[in-house]
Amino acid sequence: MKKILFLIGFITLRVGVFAQSTSTPKPDYNAPLAKKLGADQYGMKKYVMAFLKDGPNHLQDSTARAQLQMAHLKNIMRLAAEGKLIMAGPFLDDQPIRGIFIFNVATVEEAKKLTETDPEIQAGTLIMELHPWYGSAALMEVVKIHHTLESKSVTD
């Protein structure tokens, strides 16, 4: 009888702890912000990550290269202003993978349409390898925060 009472008490305690741990939200959870940023219950969301790689075409003219780079940067800024591009940046080593984009879209097809607006993709100096990616919804705030940190734009 003591064993049965012990077992019932143990099971009751385990179920109570389990129910408490799964139903109590974290004290710092911000439901309105999570909804605004599109977060799931884990604070995550779907994105598409792009690896920018050397393309088949290489411009020899330095003026044409500089103009194309500026057009590329302006396209990045446009996509960020539209909320479609969350993060972008070059790698700092001299490798075939030149940089990354993180698109605020759920599918590779949507990201492909956005990459086709890039002047470097159009010129064939870059190609993009696209992958669905699951990351923190907090990345949605990066652009807004970045603007408070930059004293000069890359397109100035």
Number of DSSP E strands: 4
Strand content: 15-25%
Low-confidence stretches: 15-21
CATH evolutionary superfamily of the largest domain: Dimeric alpha+beta barrel
End-to-end separation? 81 Å
| Widest beta sheet: strand line-up | 2-3-1-4
Task: Round the mean pLDDT to the nearest integer and report it.
Answer: 88
Class inferred from helices and paired strands = alpha+beta
Cα-atom radius of gyration: 24 Å
Highest-level CATH class of the largest domain: Alpha Beta
Give, in order, the helices and strands. HHEHEEHHEH
Q: Architecture of the largest domain, CATH level 2?
A: 2-Layer Sandwich
- Bin the helical content: 40-55%
Q: Largest sheet, described in full?
A: 4 strands, antiparallel
Fold-level CATH name of the largest domain: Alpha-Beta Plaits
Helical stretch count?
6
Counted up, domains total 2
The rough form would be described as elongated
Description:
Mean pLDDT is 88; it is low at 15-21. Helix content is 45%, strand content 22%. The protein folds into 2 domains: 2-26; 35-149, Dimeric alpha+beta barrel (Alpha-Beta Plaits, 2-Layer Sandwich), CATH 3.30.70. It is elongated and about 60 Å long. The chain is built from 6 helices and 4 strands. Strands 2-3-1-4 form a 4-stranded antiparallel β-sheet.
Write a brief caption for the model:
The protein has 156 residues and is α+β, with helices and mostly antiparallel strands.
